[in-house]
Design goal:
The chain is of the alpha/beta class and 153 residues long. The protein has two helices and five strands. Strand 3 and strand 4 form a beta hairpin. The protein starts with a helix and ends in a 45-residue tail after the last strand.
């Protein structure tokens, strides 16, 4: 896995030539954030070695580099889901690649339901915890110091 991460990272760095500070994974509902980015490079997932390809129709399948709010960003426009048939290693692969690209912060957006009557559809919220109902855990596996303490592949 580590060799694939390094191969993919090198491929991307050779094209982009800049190191992002922040990673963003856009889920359903925040795709329009791309319109706010001063885009310098775009790479289709299908052209990136070892990268999964999103099968969800509304996910564009692009890795976008640019500037947002004065920060260099790498943005995943579309992501991968367990229900698409990918395993946890494949789903978390792009996050590990972003770590090797240099990101220090990661923001992940998604559409999620709630039970609070004081919240409306499309309200933004910050989750501090969640209950995972998936049969596998993306943190399961060998700990690799190269990915940081506690970051497993």
């Amino acid at each position: 896995m580590l060799d694939k991460i390094k191969e993919t990272t090198k491929f991307i760095k050779d094209i982009v030539g800049e190191e992002p500070e922040v990673g963003i994974i856009l889920g359903t509902g925040l795709g329009a954030l791309v319109n706010e980015i001063d885009i310098s490079k775009t790479i289709l997932y299908e052209n990136i070695p070892n990268f999964p390809v999103s099968t969800v129709e509304s996910h564009s399948g692009k890795l976008i580099f640019g500037t947002l709010g004065g920060k260099r960003v790498v943005v995943m426009q579309g992501r991968f889901h367990y229900y698409e048939g990918y395993d946890m290693q494949q789903i978390t692969f792009p996050v590990r690649v972003m770590k090797f690209l240099g990101i220090k912060k990661l923001f992940i957006s998604n559409a999620s339901g709630g039970l609070r009557k004081d919240q409306n559809i499309s309200d933004l919220m910050i989750l501090s915890d969640h209950i995972s109902l998936l049969p596998d855990n993306p943190l399961r596996g060998k700990n690799l110091v190269e990915l940081d303490q506690g970051f497993r592949i």
